[in-house]
Amino acid sequence: MVIGLVLAVGESIAASHRGGRRWDQPSLVSFEKKGDREQRITLDSFLTIVIEISENADHRSISLFPQEKRMKTIRLEEMNWPDIKTAIAGGMKTVLVAVGSTEQHGPHLPTMTDALIGDVVAERVAAKLGNALVGRTISVGCSEHHLAFPGTISLKSATLKMVINDYIDSLLRSGFKKIVFVPSHGGNFAPVRDAIDEARRRHPDADITGFTDLMRFIKIFYDASAEFGISEEESGGHAGESETSIMMALRGHLIPLDRLAPGYIGPAGERELKIIFEQGMPALTQNGILGDPRKATAEKGEAYLKKLVNCLVEEIT
């Protein structure tokens, strides 16, 4: 009797819950009993009806309410085109794209550091937003100032801006209405900002944005490190305590702990950034580190990630 009731109301429930999409014949996919007080009936791959049976001394009632099944992934590269189309049609019209780098990060961190951190942050931000998907991370950026160190791969600023604009054109054609870029490498902030400005002129009806304030980005890490008694000089701007802590949380097995050593310990303001971008990293540091990673821990890394994600969510919303 309960199954018959659910199938009878399922079509109207689904129609209101899935943006007006209606089913000619709701189909029962599965039936699951959860003890004496709850039963779950799945009508299709997106909708589950939860039946809660409530009893007390005076009455016995049955409550029906729909429950979305969680998507297996929100990453476009892990999805197929029909599921992407369905997700966009269902309201997931925002997409985040991290813009990282492949460059040296001192003698202890892998060259994928910026790309990985950006990738993880974009996914966590999208998950917190709830209505967003994650586009493929751009894993090579503007890293000319790191080319003195082997393994660094760099794009010219004009090249990165063209890539970003091609991303935008493609994602808009897919049906996304809001595109958010998340640069996770210092050399990308200005090109990402310029590319967004250009794209806004070409697509005035689209919502194209990004977190492009480099000094504010650095300050998020400084503030997070300060909560653990870490100075700004130790936290650093590149492969220091904060970035090393995050990588310990994400890929600790890739970090040779015997190579943790201080690099440039000093101010890292606009003057120092200008020196780096114009003269290269060796002008300030011979080992490629800005900061001191020796106090890094995975626990602090998770805290830093959480703070960064929360700040970006506030910025986007």
Tell me what you see in this structure.
This protein has a 4-stranded antiparallel sheet. A 4-stranded parallel sheet has the order 6-5-7-8. It is built from 10 helices and 8 strands. The protein is of the alpha/beta class. The two termini are 45 Å apart. It is globular, with a radius of gyration of 24 Å. The protein has 2 domains: 2-68; 76-316, Creatininase (Rossmann fold).
Gap from first CA to last CA: 45 Å
Radius of gyration, in angstroms, nearest whole number? 24 Å
Proportion of strand residues:
5-15%
Overall average pLDDT: 85
Q: How do the SSEs run, as a string of H and E?
A: HEEEEHEHEHEHEHHHHH
What's the number of structural domains?
2
Structural class: alpha/beta
What CATH architecture label of the largest domain applies?
A: 3-Layer(aba) Sandwich
CATH fold title of the largest domain: Rossmann fold
CATH class of the largest domain: Alpha Beta
Give the neighbour order of strands across the main sheet: 1-2-3-4
Task: Provide the CATH superfamily of the largest domain.
Answer: Creatininase
Shape: globular
Low-confidence runs of at least 5 consecutive residues: 1-32, 37-68
Identify the notable features of this structure and list them briefly.
about 40% helix, four-stranded antiparallel beta sheet, Rossmann fold, about 325 residues, globular, alpha/beta
Provide the fold topology.
Blueprint: H1 2-17, E1 30-34, E2 38-42, E3 47-55, E4 60-68, H2 81-89, E5 94-99, H3 113-129, E6 132-134, H4 157-174, E7 178-183, H5 189-202, E8 207-210, H6 214-226, H7 232-235, H8 241-251, H9 270-279, H10 298-316
Parallel strand pairs: 5-6, 5-7, 7-8
Antiparallel strand pairs: 1-2, 2-3, 3-4
